[in-house]
Amino acid sequence: MQRDKAERLTDIVIGEAVTVMLAEDDAISAEALARQLSNMMSRESDPGRLTALQRAVAEVQAVPAGAQDRQGTSVHAFAIPVRPDTKKH
């Protein structure tokens, strides 16, 4: 089943926000992502993108608080936690 245009645009703005955060070497977490999306919302003039940003913020804020463990490790794609003290390669 094909997702509707609004859902695709919501995914796109989330991806754009994550890309900005990675480019700025920011930590990725639900809270940081919601802040970045809100920042993008404050500068957006396109009504469709503004709606997508609002929807994205709501989705990110709906992530349960338990999605992060007690040591602050964020839940990443595919629910694989990445600890800052581990090597990538």
Structure in words:
The protein is mostly helical and 89 residues long. Helix content is 54%, strand content 0%.
Reconstruct the topology from this structure.
Blueprint: H1 5-23, H2 30-43, H3 47-61
Helix pairs in contact: 1-2, 1-3, 2-3
Strand tally: 0
Report the average pLDDT across residues.
Answer: 81
Q: How much strand? A: under 5%
Name the poorly predicted regions: 75-80
Q: Outline, from the CA principal axes?
A: globular
Largest sheet: none
- Count of helix runs: 3
- The structure class reads mainly alpha
- Please estimate the helix content: 40-55%
- State the separation between the terminal residues, measured CA to CA: 37 Å
If you compute it from the alpha carbons, what radius of gyration comes out, rounded to the nearest whole angstrom? 14 Å
In short, what is this structure?
With 89 residues, the chain is mainly alpha-helical.
